[in-house]
Every structure is written in C-alpha cells, then in structure tokens.
Amino acid sequence: MEWNELKKSIPDDGFAEKYEIYRRARPTVTLVVLRTVTDPILFRSTDSERAETQEFNSTIHAQVNGEKFVSKERLTGLNLCRELDEKKETIISAEYTYNEPIPNLPKSQTADLLTYGLAGTVSGATFSQKSHVIEGYTYSLEPYDLMNKETHNALYESGTMRDETGHQSEALFNPVKVQPGTHFVHFITLEAGTKEMFLYLIYNILNTGRYGARETRTGRNMKNEIVGLITSESDSSLSCGELICDHIKDAKDDISRADIQAAISAYIDNHKRADWKIYTANDFKLDKDTEFPKWILDSIDVGNRSKIEHSSVLKNTLEILRQQGLDTVSEKSNNKTKPDPKQNKIPVVE
User: Fold this and answer.
1) pLDDT by residue for the chain (350 residues), tens digit each?
2) Distance CA 180, CA 189 (A)
3) What angle do CA 208, 324, 309 make, to 5 degrees?
4) How far is CA 232 from CA 29, 228, 267, 289, in A?
5) CA-angle at 207, arms to 205 and 210, nearest 5°
6) Between the CA of residue 6 and those of 2, 9, 11, what are the distances in Å?
7) Which end is more exposed in the chain, N or C (fewer Cβ atoms within 10 Å of the end residue's Cβ)?
8) Is residue 32 within 8 Å of 24, Cβ to Cβ?
C-alpha cells in the first residue's frame, strides 16, 4: 500500500483540501477515543499528589486537562518524524524542538507544528499558528476514590530510609492515582485538517501508552482505542462531561464495555446532525450502516505500523506535510505586508 492509494480511498467529507494558515472553512473529523487505564496513573493538578475532580450525578470523577494527553502524543509524533527522517531534513529540521520555537519559519515547518500549532518569534515579530487538534477535558467514567492513597517513602542513596549516619527519613508522600480498569472517553477533533494530518493524529494516539506524572519511571499505563469517527461540515461539539451527566447516572467502580458502548451510542444518537457521517467499531454500532469502512480500518492499520511497508506510508505522509508548510510559508513571504513597527507584531493567524 502507498499513501496516494490510501488517500484516494478516504472521502473528502470533514477534510480540508490542503494546509492553509487562514481557515476559511472549518470541516471537522472527530475521533471517539476510548482510553483504558492499565497501570496506576498520577494526573497532577494544583494538588501535586492527585488529579483534579468534577462531580456528576453526585459522584466524584477524575478530571484531566486534554493538554496532559496532547503533550505526550506530540512527543510520540516527533519521535516518529526523527526516526523516519534519516537526517535528510525532508520531514523535520534538526533544530526543531517541541515547545522551543526557533527563529526560522522554514525550519519550523513540520508535521508537529502544522497539526498541533506553535507560537514563536521571527525577526523580532511574533507569529502564531493555531492547533488543528482539539482535545478538551475528559473525565473518568468510573468514580475517583480520593481515599485510595498510596504511601511512598523518600529513600536515600543507599536505597533505604536511613542515611549514612543511620538517621531515619520521615519524608512521605501520598499520591492518589487513577486505578487500572478506569475508562475515559475522549472526543478528539481535527478541525480543517488534511488527510495527512489525520493519519499523523491516528498514529500519535495509537502509539502513546504512557501518560501522567512520573511516567518516565513507569511502563505502559494506558491503552487507546478508536471506537468511532464523525465527519461534519462544522464542529461536532461533543463532551465527555455531558456524556456522563446524561447517560451514566449511576457510576459503578467497574463499567462494562457494553455499558460504555450503550452510553456512547445513545449520546451520539441524541446529538447527531443531518450533516454528520458516523462510523463506529464493530461493538460500538449505532445501527447496521455505521460499521468502520475499509479506509478507516486501513488508516488504523497503518497507524499501528503492523506491517513493514506502513513506515514508508507514514514517511511519505510526513514529507508531504512538511512540503505543504514550506510552500505556505514561501507564498506568505512573497505576499506579506510589513508589520506595524509600533506593534512589532504579525496578527495571530487562525
């Protein structure tokens, strides 16, 4: 399989024809992602040892800012860019670093910036390219047990709680982690995105498995599945909080997959619009006509890199994205007007 072959099989619904800085039309593709915790995760908030919380239907749920997922997924994508670039800089400049803008627009053009956005400064003028990916807050479907604390000791270099003089350490910390078996439903929207961005987004979601604080010291702690997809001419505006409020009235410690399927199906069915095209995984069907078509299954297959040739598909995709960014920057440079010297700013682009 080649990228052009897969790209032609993907309908145009929900996608922009090409990358543009200024978005005149905003079609969307919304991925319904089921996140399942496989090892305890610490999602920090203002309290460094527990997650933020939100109450729905008299039950406390863990609340997680979407940025905590986006930041890890972006790093997954950047690792792919560097792996497939082979130091030729056809995918990513050697100077490009996440969250550290470089003062050079051409060198900044990469799938990461084009898909997720970035702000920086070039020649003393600021620039901002908005994210095409919208990952809002999500909430645990099951209750978040604030009393389920783990007590950890602060150890000395010896690996024990005693220092070299024999004094006992009294330093303790009590994280409240989200426990295995907990589920999150995340509605992730690609707004005015290209088909290349779509495949890049799928790859990043499916290949990120470690989230939360101290994740560098733990193994895989979350499994992500794409269980639904919605294309629309505008924002689908779906919310995990609304899903819980309306369709998970009595939260249980262990919500079955069938119950999650029923809640998602009822929620989407209640909010669907005439311009939506809805597709779902086998066990998340809304009706007999929503089962994932081949182009979605193929996109997920490539995103999982289940075959050797999928790497070349992804490489071609990333090269196209970088070239689109370079072409856009070049076109803008040829037609730009000088910024107001009093403001020393280029307007934020959408």
Assistant:
1) 899 999 999 999 999 998 888 788 899 999 999 999 999 998 877 655 667 889 998 899 999 999 999 999 999 999 999 999 988 899 999 999 887 778 788 888 999 999 998 765 555 556 667 899 999 899 999 998 765 555 445 555 555 545 566 665 554 445 788 999 999 999 999 999 999 999 999 999 999 999 987 656 678 999 999 999 999 999 888 999 999 999 998 878 889 999 999 999 999 999 999 999 999 998 887 776 789 999 999 999 999 999 999 999 999 999 999 999 999 888 766 665 544 444 444 444 44
2) 26
3) 50
4) 7, 13, 16, 17
5) 90
6) 6, 5, 10
7) C
8) no
Q: Are 288 and 58 in contact (CB under 8 A)?
A: no
**Amino acid letter for position 167:** H
* Beta-strand pair 59-64/138-139: antiparallel
The residues near 214 (Cβ < 8 Å, ≥ 6 apart) are 42
Q: How far apart are CA 329 and CA 105, in angstroms?
A: 7
Yes or no: say if 149 and 51 are a contact pair by the CB < 8 Å rule.
no
Query: Of 272, 301, 300, nearest to 286 (Cα)?
Result: 272
Q: How many CB atoms lie within 10 A of CB 257?
A: 13
Check: CB of residue 262 under 8 Å from CB of residue 269: no
Q: Which long-range contacts (CB under 8 A, 24 or more apart) does 43-50 make?
A: 43/68, 43/178, 43/211, 43/212, 43/213, 44/212, 44/213, 48/213, 49/173, 49/174, 49/175, 49/176, 50/146, 50/175, 50/176
Q: Which two tokens stand for residue 270?
A: 């209640």
Q: Which amino acid is at 112?
A: D
To 5 degrees, how large is the angle CA 289–CA 273–CA 265? 50
| Residue bearing tokens 């924002």 | 235
**DSSP strands (E only) in 302-345:** none
Token readout for 221 is 């702690």
Can you state the percent helix, strand and coil of the chain, rounding each to 5?
30, 20, 45
